[in-house]
Input
Amino acid sequence: MQNRQLIIGMAFAGVLGAVVACAQQGQPSPSATANVTLKGQQITIAYSRPSMRGRKIMGDLVPYGRVWRTGANEATTLTTPVGLNIGGANVPAGKYTLWTLPGENAWKLIINKQTGQWGTNYDESQDLTRVDMQKSQTTGPVEQFTISWKKTGADSADLVLEWENTRVSVAVRAM
Output
């Protein structure tokens, strides 16, 4: 009986050590949030940040002409307590998932009504809208996928996505 407890204790210590080692190394695609306050209300995007790690990203890991999960892990979510106009499309207050349709010359932002799914479970029938994004080059390589906001007024901001050498953005206004 005592030997069995010792073996179980050693196994637990080994598992615990592995968990601690993994935590210390960090996740390959850690969670992040991008927040902006428009008209006194906080709009939040929750996403995961994959890294290049020497890989070709645009047109390869992120293929052109196919819907992309816009991050890693769980589907990227947009939570807004106020209605928004995103790229000319009205988006009521609520929670949504964000997807993109990357192209070599043009990108689309997809706002989807389905929430709570893993980032590979996209259901086109749940799309609220698709809007055009402006594409440009970054000033230098961006190692880790980043979503950010660039305020343009008290009730407006540009939503910005950057990775590798690509920057895409779309205007957002609180209604």
Notes: The chain has one domain: 28-174. Residues 6-25 have pLDDT under 50 and may be disordered. Residues 28-174 form one domain. The first helix runs from residue 2 to 25.
